[in-house]
Specification:
It holds the Pfam family DUF421. The chain folds into 3 domains: 88 residues, no CATH class; 56 residues, bsu07140 like domains (CRO Repressor), CATH 3.30.240.20; 50 residues, 2-Layer Sandwich (CRO Repressor). The chain is flat. It is of the alpha+beta class. The chain has 8 helices and 8 strands.
């Protein structure tokens, strides 16, 4: 087999692997929202780009590398979606940078946000005074979400994929017992039954997983 044919075969296999990952693992890779999404794209691109032009690596070896990487990504995603501790290790957790009009300097320093960067982001939201901010939260993807003093609703879901968001629970001044009570009142057995839970106007709105 000549070199050009080998390159074409590897390129086609790489594209098929990319399509397979997108369809199996979701389309989040098209618009990465976390560090693991970015790493997955970079590594897969490096594998495909680095091996395509290497004539010493056979098609079978190329397929094995693609399968191993796809398996690793699938395992990591499954663990992240079903275990809050794994998710926090991989994606981190939202950082509260501003609370009740006060800048939490230690959190800003830990997140690598300078005072100039913080004010620049606030100006992007049309806010020019920290005192007007009820809560400023740095998302895992680096976006700063602002909740102003006159806003009643929290812009974060209280429940994600069957897991309670502790930071949001603290913002709304409730505890896990209250969350469990709301879930039981709605007719569900546990938080594992909930796909998404939003805190709106003092009430918890629940969206369950479809019944098997």
């Amino acid at each position: 087999m000549d070199n050009y044919s080998l390159i074409i075969i590897k390129f086609v296999l790489g594209m098929l692997c990319l399509i397979l990952q997108i369809n199996l693992l979701g389309k989040g890779n098209l618009a990465p929202t976390s560090a693991i999404d970015q790493v997955q794209n970079y590594v897969l691109g490096g594998i495909i780009g680095g091996i395509i032009y290497n004539g010493e690596i056979s098609v079978l070896e190329f397929i094995m590398v693609l399968l191993i990487w796809t398996l690793i990504v699938f395992i990591v995603k499954f663990a992240k979606d079903h275990n809050i501790w794994v998710r926090r290790i991989i994606d981190g957790r939202p950082q509260i940078l501003i609370q009740n009009g006060k800048v939490l300097v230690e959190n800003c320093m830990r997140a690598g946000i300078s005072a100039n960067d913080l004010m620049f982001r606030l100006r992007g939201h049309g806010i020019y005074e920290v005192a007007k901010v009820k809560s400023g939260i740095l998302e895992q993807n680096g976006q700063l979400v602002i909740i102003e003093n006159d806003e009643a609703n929290v812009r974060f879901p209280l429940i994600n994929d069957g897991q309670i968001n502790i930071d949001v629970m603290e913002l709304i001044h409730h505890d896990e017992q209250w969350v469990f009570e709301q879930i039981h009142k709605a007719g569900y057995d546990s938080v594992d039954d909930i796909y998404l839970g939003e805190y709106i106007n003092g009430k918890l709105t629940l969206i369950p997983y479809p019944k098997a």
